[in-house]
Write a structure and sequence with these properties.
single chain; alpha/beta; seven-stranded mixed β-sheet; 12 helices; globular
């Protein structure tokens, strides 16, 4: 995803001279082409994310379109006050890009895990939250972010995410697999595991649909009404704590819908620190967010 982001922002900045890319001490080689093509519009702000966000605010006030980029926890929690007051309060057109979300940097420990970013940011007014699920979606959602008048948070994975169906429209939710009875809702870059879990469900003759939820805020209520009319059980699968993530967001809206008939389940990360050292695959296996783990949790609820 990060390579796709670098390539796409370079193309977009070549066309739109207002785009300014700010980096939090990463991506120097990643953005070599950006610097060559778009001279004087790339700034490495160093390990000073709060300052980077303040600079972005000033650029936005001056009529530019700033894009901040660094590892997710550093571009969200470390500069949360600046996001709230410098970007969201004045509702400035700014794109905040977090790379390596979820457990992409599992081996570096809790400092680099981002399992609470959606929860924290969606509580702030004015911000839109996009969670692309594969590199193709990064292109579409980055382009869509440029059209939004206020601040946008773009939540990326890290690398080697496969592309799935080429969804032409940039809707908030898309059906990837058509089925009945139960529904799986994918959130973000964990789609690879969700699709593998879908294959296991098929082998076990469990009929189901898979949807890709790319827009967490604002959440479209009519989509939830549609799901309620068509599925008895809904499973929200996300590489995020259950608290405050997409599952919580959906439940908040469900309470506003009359006669909502579906039962909603969370397949996510338990609200505990993950303290072992290992790569992302090992971490997801440990907490049951690998394909087999997702399948087992679904099977348990449909008996």
């Amino acid at each position: 995803m990060r390579n796709t982001f670098a390539s796409e922002i370079t193309k977009l900045a070549k066309k739109n001279k207002k785009i300014v890319l700010l980096s939090g001490d990463i991506g120097n080689r990643l953005f070599d082409n950006f610097r060559k093509i778009n001279k004087n519009r790339f700034y490495n702000c160093g390990i000073a994310e709060a300052s980077m966000t303040g600079i972005a605010s000033g650029l936005a006030y001056s009529g530019f379109l700033p894009v901040t980029y660094t590892i997710t926890p550093f571009n969200t929690m470390r500069c949360l006050e600046q996001i709230k007051l410098d970007i969201c309060y004045p509702n400035l057109k700014t794109i905040i890009v977090g790379t390596g979300s979820g457990l992409s940097y599992a081996s570096l420990g809790s400092t680099h895990h981002s399992l609470e970013d959606i929860s924290i940011l969606r509580s702030i007014p004015n911000i839109t939250i996009f969670c692309p699920s594969d590199p193709n979606e990064v292109k579409k959602m980055l382009s869509q972010s440029l059209k939004i008048k206020g601040p946008v948070y773009l939540r990326l994975g890290k690398k080697n995410e496969p592309n799935f169906q080429n969804r032409k429209k940039v809707g908030s939710m898309h059906k990837l697999i058509k089925g009945k009875s139960i529904c799986l809702i994918n959130v973000g870059a964990i789609l690879k595991n969700v699709m593998k879990a879908s294959e296991i469900l098929k082998k076990n003759k469990i009929d189901h649909s898979v949807y890709d939820l790319r827009v967490i805020k604002p959440l479209i209520i009519k989509n939830l009404i549609y799901l309620s009319k068509n599925y008895s059980k809904i499973f929200v699968i996300e590489e995020h704590y259950e608290n405050g993530g997409a599952y919580s967001c959906i439940l908040e809206q469900v309470n506003k819908i009359k006669n909502f008939r579906s039962k909603v389940y969370s397949i996510s990360v338990e609200n505990k620190f993950i303290k072992f050292c290992g790569d992302q695959k090992s971490a997801l296996n440990l907490i049951g967010l690998d394909a087999e783990g997702i399948f087992k949790r679904i099977k348990k609820e449909i008996k």
